[in-house]
Amino acid sequence: MLIIKWHKWLYSNKLDELRKKKWKQLQHVLQKSPFYAAYSNESRSINEYPIMNKASFMKDFDQINTAAISVDEAFDIAFKAEEQRDFSSMIGDIAVGLSSGTSGNRGVFLANENERAKWVASVLDRVIGLSFRKRSVAFFLRANNNLYESVKSKWLSFHYFDLLDTPEKHINRLNKLQPNILVAQPSLLLELAYAIEKNNLSIRPEKIISVAEVLYPEDKAYLQKVFKQNIHQVYQCTEGFLAATCPFGTLHFNEDFLIIEKKYIDAEQKRFHPVITDLERHTQPIIRYELNDIIIEDSPCPCGKKTTAIAQIEGRSDDVLKFMNKSDKMIIIYPDFIRRAIIFADASIRDYCVIQQSDQLILLFINADNEVYEKAKNALQNVLLQHEIVKVKINRIHSKQHFSGNKLRRIRNEQKQSN
Fold it and tell me: Could you give the CA distance from residue 144 to residue 162 in angstroms, rounded to a whole number?
């Protein structure tokens, strides 16, 4: 913890220098990785390393990690833990975690005791905050992990809430616990907000942290209204602790221990896929790992941080909507354009979902009456017409087809790969 704060002060305006120092140190660790040993060299540029994605990373899992753990062994212990809802198992001193696998491909991550300690220090420093007053944290997860349990201390009690439990059980536990800090997915936070409005839940957490899912601006505004406070965010995935909100509420990449390369995907160079290199991960090195998340870059934040600010995590590249227009030209529409069309169609729209099932069919859920639904449908049609997309049918559905424990994706593309 002291090292993190020392680095923040010493290198506040010299992040490049700090990253170069850590990159040099990491080369010695990479010598222990059968996959990266041939690349590692203090004078080698990061650009000489291969770019990885989930498929290639999991394919070479056995060779990448420095603990000689096989992917089969890691998955076996992680799957058993989830099936039995017992997350205390480890491989030696290595904690094993399982990603949610929103895209259908689940990933597994490893963290040793030192890495867990650094993660805890970072979370305390940037997310929870230090205090000598005893506080309780309600943390909602699909699968618990020793990484999260290690946050516990005499000043901080950690209470795991299983996402697969019923809403009634969550509400009863929360009413008894009265947590100081609430950490949950936006979809779960929305359920709790509805319960508060119905007077079924009475809690007053001093801090609320959104994790794991896209926090849509309209959902954030509603949650802030109900909970009467700013909603903080953490951007974390299998690949590491990537970003957290500053006091101004802006998400910033943790570029004191991450190298972020930006793979721009639009002509305006506003949206990009982050290519992540984690300078602190030693058991399972993360080198030039390209995420398929779509990040919208923000202008410099008033807080003064030199790290990249995130205006919005828009979703995944898999959820970009794709159509053929009347000139047989492939048109892609980013989720934010769809989102804006829906929510600006009528001020009462709060709960919605758009699902593309084929290049000629969209399913639309609007939790409102017929008049409001028609407004949303017309707004969506207008977006399509702006791109000369004319042969798309929009059908109404009466559920957003979101199941408890899965990530909420309000805009998603469920076309078959061949499309």
Answer: 8
